[in-house]
Amino acid sequence: MSIPPKRTKLTATPAMQAAATKSAIPLTAIRAKPLSKLEQNTRLGHVFWCGFSPHNWPPEFDDKHLVVVIRGGARANGTHVVVPLTSQPQTGEFAYKLKYNPNPRSAPEAWAVCDHIYTVASERLEQLRDDKGHFRRSLAIDADDLREIGRKVFASLNSLRRHTFGVVPERP
């Protein structure tokens, strides 16, 4: 049986402390987290604007896009699971064209990109505006559209499961 080595207290030399202080980001350089613009908690099927990072690269979403909530959260310090909407026609098995665009002023059509699932903070979400620029109450998409989006989201996740774990045998 070996005896564990005696622990000694590590102390930083003045040079190490100076280097650590120099490399640390000053608190004034850290941007404060913005306040949430939501007036209520998000709910399944509601549509919001989402401020994605402007530094994302395609096929990621960047800047502001409409999103539909597929798991709601609290407006303060909450997280929300969303599927982005786009006016660009989409192809593929995980794209879905909505019956109508929740923001018809932007384009006549809206597509849900069901294999781009995001979890975002409340501070990224903003309610839609009316024609006068005022925030309006949350708008829910059509129930049939929500059902199809949910079906395609599950299909995209099942595709991942099949590629990861193989085909799962059916239950008897």
Task: Describe this structure as you would to a colleague.
- With 172 residues, the protein is an alpha+beta fold.
- The chain has a domain of 120 residues: Roll (SH3 type barrels), CATH 2.30.30.
Task: Give the secondary structure arrangement, pairings included.
Layout: H1 14-23, E1 46-51, E2 64-71, E3 79-86, E4 95-97, E5 111-113, E6 118-121, E7 125-126, E8 139-140, H2 143-165
Considering the chains and any ligands shown, give keywords for the structure.
SH3 type barrels, extended, eight-stranded antiparallel sheet, 172 residues, 19% helix
Tell me the total number of β-strands.
8
Strand content: 15-25%
What CATH first level of one domain would be assigned?
Mainly Beta
CATH architecture of one domain: Roll
- Mean pLDDT across every amino acid position: 82
Query: What does the main sheet amount to?
Result: 8 strands, antiparallel
Count of individual helical segments: 2
SSE pattern: HEEEEEEEEH
Structural class: alpha+beta
Question: What are the segments in which pLDDT stays under 50 over at least 5 consecutive residues?
Answer: none
Q: Roughly what percent helix?
A: 10-25%
Can you give me a brief rundown of this structure?
This protein is an alpha+beta fold. Helices cover 19% and strands 21% of the residues. The chain has a domain at 46-165: SH3 type barrels (Roll).
